[in-house]
Amino acid sequence: MAPRASYTPSPTRIDREWPHQIALPDDMCCDHNFTLIASFCRDHALPFQTRRVQAVWPDKRYQDMRLHCFAKREDAELFQSYFGGELFNPDTDREGGRRGWWQRSGVWTRLLESGPLKVPAILRD
Q1: In which domain, by residue range, is 69 found?
Q2: How many domains does one find in the chain?
Q3: 33-83: per-residue pLDDT in tens?
Q4: Rounded to two decimals, what is the model's pTM?
Q5: C-alpha distances in angstroms, 25 versus 7, 14, 41, 60, 65?
Q6: Is 115 within the bounds of a domain?
């Protein structure tokens, strides 16, 4: 039996069709948290796609972020009101084109909790 084909939209298509994006630290979106996010989106009928971006601060610290991308602004706002995270605009926030980085301002601080999400203990240090 042939393997089932899966389809993931291109990054350009995600930015075009799911432009309302919420960024959370990538290490906060794994393990049990992945299940929490998937269940919340399923229970609230929030179709979404994910992308990644690397956030870079002026002191050269960086962090991988997972973008939860929604077609409707109100879906992104509902997601953000529950899980936290930051709005990410794919048209203006990504430096260096569609595969670039997210230039941040201010001082980097590690986020260990956001809404019901917590970085798993094994990833804390």
Answers
A1: 12-107
A2: 1
A3: 999 999 999 999 999 999 999 999 999 899 999 999 999 999 999 999 999
A4: 0.89
A5: 25, 19, 18, 17, 4
A6: no
